[in-house]
Amino acid sequence: MKLIKLIKGGIKNLAINKMRTGLAILGIVIGIGSVIALISLGESSKSAVQSQIQSLGANLLTVSPSGQRSGTVRGAAGGGTTLTLEDAEAIESSTKITTIKTVSPSYTGRAQVTANRNNTNTQVVGVELSYAEVRKITLTSGRFISDKDVSSYAKVAVIGPTTAEDLFGEGVNPLGQTIKVNSQTLTIIGVSKAKGGSGPTNQDDIIYIPLTTAQKQIFGVKYLSTIYLEAKSQDVMSRAQEEVGYFLMERHDITDTSKIDFRIMSQADIMETATSVTGTFTSMLTGVAAISLLVGGIGIMNIMLMSVTERTREIGLRKALGAKKRTIILQFLTESIILTFTGGIIGILFGIIGFYIYAKVNSSSFIVSPGSVILAFVVSAAIGVLFGWYPARRASDLQPIEALRYE
Amino acid sequence: MTPTIEITKLTKTYKTADMETPVLLGIDLSIEKGEFVAIMGPSGSGKSTLMHILGALDLPTSGSYHLDGLDVGKLSDDELADIRNKKIGFVFQAYNLLPRTSALENVMVPMEYAGVAEEEQKTKAKKFLELVGLGDRLFHAPNKLSGGQQQRVAIARALVMDPSIILADEPTGNIASAQAEEIMSIFQKLNKAGHTIVMITHEPDIAEHARRIIHIKDGKIEKESKDHRQRIIEEAKKDRKTLKRLHV
What we know:
The complex is a heterodimer. In chain A, 56% of the residues lie in helices and 18% in strands. Chain A contains 13 helices and 12 strands. A 6-stranded mixed β-barrel of chain A has the order 4-5-10-7-9-8. In chain A, strands 2-3 form a two-stranded antiparallel sheet. Chain B has a 6-stranded mixed β-sheet, with helices on both faces. Chain B has a 4-stranded antiparallel β-sheet with strand order 2-1-4-5, with helices on one face.
């Protein structure tokens, strides 16, 4: 009852100067809105990365060459040439390694691909049959690269749905068509199923060819870029990582751990790296948004201080009529909280709408975490108290006669 | 019976960083319940300061001020607020009503601070507005009322807590003379009904409405005079004596 009266009075006072009230609220709207939008953005991109990595399977280990050292200068990660097909075969046939189920060597490069008059620049991955199993690739039509394709250096290719569309247009069946990659003509034998994803490692914009064809005829290299290993179960992951690690050190004649020329990562490792990158990015942006919220709060304080000065006589009168300090503080705090809370609600709406538009445009997932909405509510009310306190305190400290005399 | 207001050796000195300005230089004053007192004096005489101290808006530098036996000089800010709320009804020269707030709600403000239930606030406010002749203006905002009407709202507001004293600071200072008479007749009526009224004014004909006039000059009480009617009665008594003497 009393609270309703306080709020009514507050709204009445704020309605006197609508322009000023509106601008003060706008500051909070922008602050809360950007915080909501960015937190949601961060959470959804994090979950997108997680689901993408999870879809590759939890038992997957990735062995890649680490940057080579020449003296003390370290080369770019992944640019090494130290991993070979023989390494992969040795891992597969070794009796010391008991935890690995499947070994899949691969070489990935980028190349210009043409078909008829269309051309595109895409990833070309040299693989063996086991690749489909470890990377969970399924086909919509045709078949995958077979062992026979690999041993016979067959000029065949399985292409991703995005690449198929780029080269042949929508709705055209590319099976049996030919494409040219680095002046080699390849026949399409299969189309992989869409997996989703974006960026340079888009798994739909890709061409799979036999590993031997890739190494010898397309890229002319003798090394591998990645060996994928599938562990027997998730429980033996760390043991598998150790076994393969020591095995490869021995094979590469390495005794000093600082000179290791390869890197073994599990999905958990990759996920950690990816989420820590997006996490850093998100927290940076959220920090910027928080600063705008702070500026909004200062705006509220400014408005409230102005209001206290303008209403000095009113405050004096109220004190003369028996208002205690607490009553005056409550009156002014109510006003500042109404300002920030209204700003908070509008900001949450704008933030969600803004994020929705972003999600639509980038066809990314639209998830608004209820936690961030609750947080925004609490923060906006807290800003009202925090930045309203000083002006309210100042109002309550006014001496009644001074205030009554004020012109 | 203790007087409503009891002031002894009261002084007030305003201090700024490098200057002391004495305003009241030792006032002794006692006002009984039911009195109607006017305080007169030229500007700068200290009458407004005395008024502020009487209204518990300011504290004396030395000396004591008892209101209903309570030592006002020894109270905290919030206790003073309570005194102003329950024991003092203010009527200001500039009316000091809350803008954009109806007459009814203006009269309700002191009761709100006293924690009176809202329904009671409304009925009481209505009753007192009717008493000052504004029963048909309950929902008018101050800017829709004349000066005299605004001052009557202020009087209703001063009465609503049934205070020990009504303090009026130049209550007719901003009001046309016809309406000023109306205001003064309300004060007369209230005084007859038993209210204690202390009024500050510099207009002698307004002060004439009071039954006791206190003249202040340079921070001291210069003289006290009785009101018009009492003077006539006293003069008549003297006259009777001279008549007697003449006829004896």
